[in-house]
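INSTRUCTION: Work out how this chain folds

Fields: amino acid sequence; protein backbone structure tokens

Chain under study, with its fold:
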Amino acid sequence: MTRAWAIVALAVLLPASSHAGSRGRFGGRLNLALALRQNELDPLWADTPSEAALMGLLSRGVCRLDRARGPQGVLASEMSRASPTHLKLTVRPNLRFDQGLPVSAKEVAASWMRLFSPSTPTPYRALLFPLRGEGRQLELSATSKYTLELATAFPWPDLERSLCHPSLSVTDARTGRLHGVGPFRPTGEPGTFAANLSFPEGRPYADSLTVTATDERGAARLLSLKRAHVALGGADDGTASGAPALYATYLAFRKERVGQDFRAAVEAGIDRVDLTRYFVRAPAVAMPHLLPPALHPGAEAPRPPAWKGSAGAPREVTLLYDQTLEDQRAVAERLQLKLHERGYRVALRGVSRQALRQAWAKGDYELLMHSLLLPPAPAPALAVAIEAAGRHELLGVHLPGLGAIAEQSARDARARELSDSLLFELELVPLYAQGLRVTVAPELLGLSVDPQGLPALDSAFLQEGGP
């Protein structure tokens, strides 16, 4: 039996408040190997599941998703509905960011407003679209500095689920860098973090955490040498993963720049199954729909428009991709080859994630690869995809109708139907979706995964006798 094994099926997310149970063991240092050399810790940029998992150790949102009970408060002590268009959110008193400054409703609102800042353009702003003024009119209570009144322009039952998304983790930038409230806090030493004893859901089991950024081989080596207890994003070992594949990658295009028949050329030129199998890090699945298979199970692949062949001189276009993601680079090179066969000369240009989002926000691109961590709910996920396609105006057309469906399963079904009807209207070609491979050493117990597909490392503990 190998020293480390991939999680095939993870248990239901355990609330951190269960830490006092007899199963857990407090103490020790948890060593994490992260198979990602460059990573973002800003919630607006932390798109990969590995980054989101690491960020979640240092910064949490007002709530988290529980498989059985739905949204559960973390930084919020209460989320209550006065009406279908009014959500009252109460921030826990006495919270502090890791640098010591206090957290109130004002700081929560300021953190969320970053989604609408020109300096941090992000498709995740669609998660707050239902709020009146698209989030710009968050009302602070006159009676309590810990109360935030969220009024929506139309009923939106998925608001609570949206607020649990990692991009809405509460951060503070008053000292020039981002600070959060998480189960661990920085120690000042790079890659080393200490347990936050005042974390509102209870302190993590481990006393401290060390993070080593490496690659897939390096992560496997650290595990084999007993220098890591868990690896995130390690190499595929052929087993299935219990985490849902919600990290979706799309190819965005500007029709007026690439031609009316571009989508047909892409659909005719690529085989998503082969593309995913040979060029994308597992666990991954082909994604023929706007929503990944995890949110659109059992759906048949749609029939794309027929490609009638290229005519005239080759069309020269540039494809922007995230230079920090090896998957995107490999897929971009494959697309370059396949599109060349159909009359397109594709120049590849790797840029930073921030530059990629700036180009997207300005519409200053011909082809652009989007990789986004979609929420585990069809309606909010569709909103993010529509925003990523540059069709912001469609949110006001379609979201009110979705929000009018009170019953969740019916609303989810309608969101899937709507995603199918929009597939060939949007300038967005879905390619593949990925999950997060989590590999653990035998002495690490209690690790679980949440509905977003992220491991709850603060719930993990080292068994007696472990290092």
